[in-house]
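Hi all, posting the design record for the shared folder.

TITLE: backbone redesign
STEP: 1 of 1
STRUCTURE INPUT:
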């Protein structure tokens, strides 16, 4: 069993203590940094009243990106499936000639 790591992440002027697997540290730090950068961008671009509004906007932005990647992935998967079916038909056609 691996040793747990205690870290503190700062998001929207609040510190969050976490106990994580060491393999998670880099990803969590990058995620916190991305949230901070996006929050600053929203604060500068819009008249935002409080941090909760900024964080809600960040959550929506990140969730939207995830959804778009899911759609793109399913489109890529269906395209790959169609290509595999065409390849299968071609192979079957060539094998049935013999």
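Okay, here is what came back for every position:
SEQUENCE:
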């Amino acid at each position: 069993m691996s040793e747990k790591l205690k870290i503190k992440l700062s998001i929207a002027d609040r510190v969050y203590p976490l106990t994580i697997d060491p393999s998670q540290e880099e990803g969590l730090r990058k995620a916190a940094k991305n949230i901070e950068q996006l929050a600053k961008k929203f604060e500068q671009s819009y008249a935002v009243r409080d941090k909760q509004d900024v964080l809600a906007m960040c959550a929506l932005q990140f969730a939207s990106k995830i959804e778009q990647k899911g759609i793109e992935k399913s489109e890529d998967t269906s395209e790959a499936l169609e290509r595999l079916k065409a390849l299968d038909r071609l192979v079957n056609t060539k094998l049935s000639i013999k």
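COMMENT: The first helix runs from residue 25 to 45.
Let me know if anyone wants the other runs.
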